[in-house]
Amino acid sequence: MRRPCFWLMLYAVAFGAFGVYGGCKPETARLTPAAPGTAAKRVCISYAYWAVNVREVAVARRLKEHFEAANPSISVRLLEIPQRYYDKLQTMMAGGEPPDVFAANYGRLADFVRAGAVRDLLPLIENKQSLASQYAPATWESLEALALSLGKQGLWGLPRDWPPAGLLLYNRDILAAAGVEEPRGSWTWSQFRRACERVRAADLPNITPAAINLYPYSVLTWLAQADAPVLGADGSVFPQPKQAAEAFDFILGLWRDGLAKRPDPRHDDSIEQFASGRVAFAFGTFYSLETCAKIGSFDWGLAPPLRHRRQACSALPTFLAVSARSQHPEAAFRWARFLSTTGAEVYAEQALAVPAVKSNRTEELFLRMPPLNRARKALREAVAVSQPPPIHPTVAYERLADEIRSGLESMLLGRTDAAGAVMQIRQRLRNGNVAAASR
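RE: above sequence
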């Protein structure tokens, strides 16, 4: 008996692990009108996305129905993946059955482009200038920066949302009990540290001043505030090593000096700590606000991003890409464009995303409902100073993040100081690049 192909078996396992909504027959068809007296065939395209909660699933299904009603020649099959999204996406691609359209964050999008899995959208666009004008300038500039970083000219996706990360959350009740005034504007690192010291000095029972995490979005935020770019224009890592070490020392100094519990580089429970009411400050993302909205035991607030050499925060943007192997690129592009414009407004209306599209309606839709509406001012400020993750010409985003995490782990274990951690990261990535280039 012949053994089944490994990749087909793996694909079957992965395919069974997510939901499919909206079946359609994979007929080959064109988007041009059918000839008189003939029935028009429907193009079937598939769309893979994170089905992380019931509200997002409901929105995606509603958008599918709206799109199909307006585009009767196209049928959309939703591939709803709740867990291990990128693992399953890569398995589908390796099995020769990639989705026509898929969602990806900025770093992962670059990895897929580097692997040749994404279609250049420029040939499908009638007027690039007109299309670009529909999106916030920073989101479109990030696409151009991605192409420049990879040395692959083209348009490799459409922006859907631009959620800021590294946001400063605070517990109003703890600050009041400690006699600490709430941040009315953007605090400096020094002001933030003094506030943590005052919370500790108040000696409140079972209260820790801050919860920190070493996930990429937070680390990239502190590096940006220190004006310490991860990558130089030539692809070099940490071209300003002293400023990078300053950022590492600032955040781990909070733990070292007893102002925060020891963070786990591989696991983040800082938002859970904050939601329990045990810490005064925590650093989260736009998506953390949904957790905060459910807090009933204390009053919370959101401060503008911290500043050191400059005010900044990272972003966790989502883009929509068309597979290089899609048999129906025109239909796929039409669906991706719909999701990134009309879809972005619907996501904003449901407080599920910060829209990348420019619209007269988005300001009214965005976080208009309490209790999230009180975070609007700080969020607008965060969006204005947020920036996407760095893209290296040859190093995968996950590898870059892992090496930064490893450097911070070395500091936690006492193996090196901040300057040594930066040197470790630079050396390991440089060695990896040399090894990759020699193969």
